[in-house]
Specification:
116 residues; 8-stranded mixed β-sheet; mainly beta; globular; Barwin-like endoglucanases
Length: 116
């Protein structure tokens, strides 16, 4: 039996941009992606701490080293620049594997979106 379990989490980063006119997705600094074991194209859930919204979208890699977090397309209506979000990635795995699997969790500085 396969279950869906937490694989990766970027905990509490600040939205730096919201681009309604882009096709869709969330743009994330590659430094954060690598630290959280996430990849471009991966499906993620976005949880907005400021307003409780939950959004599913996919990742696009942004500019490295800038700490950029940009919600694109319709998702841009669900956030405001400055909102604090959590980005969660899940994976399907065997039930027994999930019992011992250790997800990649990172806790960037919320003001800079960088790892200290």
């Amino acid at each position: 039996m396969l279950i869906q379990a937490l694989k990766s989490k970027i905990h509490r980063v600040k939205v730096t941009e919201a681009d309604l006119n882009y096709i869709g997705s969330i743009t994330i600094d590659p430094d954060l992606l690598e630290a959280a074991n996430m990849i471009e194209g991966e499906k993620v859930q976005i949880v907005n701490i400021n307003n409780g919204e939950r959004i599913e979208t996919y990742i696009i890699a942004g500019e490295r080293g800038k700490g950029g977090i940009c919600l694109n397309g319709p998702a841009a209506r669900r956030v405001a620049v400055g909102d604090v979000i959590i980005i969660i990635g899940y994976a399907y795995m065997e039930f027994e594997e999930a019992k011992t699997f250790k997800p990649s969790l990172i806790f960037p500085n919320t003001e800079t979106n960088k790892l200290d």
